[in-house]
Amino acid sequence: MNQINQNSAKQAADGMRKLIMVQGVVLLVVGLILLLFPAASLTTLVFILGVYWLIEGLATVYSAFQQRSHNRHWWWSLISGGLGILAGFIVLAKPGSSTVFTTSFLVSLLGFIAIINGVSALLTANQLKKRQQNGKTYLWRGIFALILGILLIAAPFSSALVIVKIIGIFLILAGLVTIAMARQLKLKASRFA
Question: Which GO terms describe its cellular component (predicted)?
Answer without folding.
Answer: plasma membrane
